[in-house]
Amino acid sequence: MSFFNKPDPKSKFQYFMGLVYPDSAPENWINDLRMVGRPFAVSPLHDKDKHSEFHEDGAYISEHLIKPHYHVLLNWENNTTYRTVDQLWQSYNQPHPFVASSPRACFKYLWHADDPDKYPYNEADVRLYNGFDPACLLKLTQSETTAYLKQIRQDQNHYTALHQLHCKGIYQDHLRATST
After folding, report:
1. pTM for this one?
2. Is the dihedral of CA 2, 3, 8, 11 positive or negative?
């Protein structure tokens, strides 16, 4: 997950991602965030993440656990300024949030779904608040749907052709010839 430079404070966005370190956050930060009234999702506590250090020449130096933290994906249904969310995050004594340019990827990052080099947290441990709806993030895009349908049609055509060969007895002869 890459973190970006802070955008113009007046720029408006819908999704934001922030880190929360339990040792420096208010005890009731989740309840406080619920009171803001915006939908949000909280990762399981990332307490098994590791940071690897490498020498300039690429040689491995060491690996250590990083400070336990939560990732929070916040949905501001009607866009709001970065400044608004940054001030909220600062009130929790946390690092600056960033704009979630790909909310789907950010949501899946809550449990490291697409990051095999990181510790795999359990998706079922992601907590949803204030009506956060992951279905709208996880549904396929139009281009993904088109690609999957195209693949299904190709597979269907392939299996139809195999079935036709089988019915004609040609498929059995082909299998016998290739298996010997």
Report:
1. 0.72
2. positive
Q: What is the pLDDT along the chain (180 residues), one digit of tens a residue?
A: 444 557 888 989 999 999 999 999 999 999 999 999 999 999 999 999 988 777 788 777 777 888 999 999 999 988 999 999 999 999 999 999 999 988 999 999 999 999 888 999 999 999 999 999 998 787 766 766 676 667 767 766 666 665 565 566 555 555 555 555
Q: From the centroid of its chain, how far is CA 178?
A: 44
> DSSP for 2-61?
-------TT-EEEEEEEEE-TTTS-TTHHHHHHHHT--EEEPPPB-S-EEEEE-TTS-EE
Tell me 101's DSSP state. S
Please, what CATH class does the domain formed by 12-138 belong to?
Answer: alpha beta
Task: Find the Cα–Cα–Cα–Cα dihedral 157, 161, 164, 170, rounded to 10°.
Answer: -170
Q: Which helix (H) or strand (E) holds 157?
A: helix 142-167
Q: Which of 137, 110, 102, 124 has the alpha carbon at shortest distance from 46?
A: 110
Domain ranges (residues) in the chain: 12-138, 142-179
Token output for 3: 């973190």
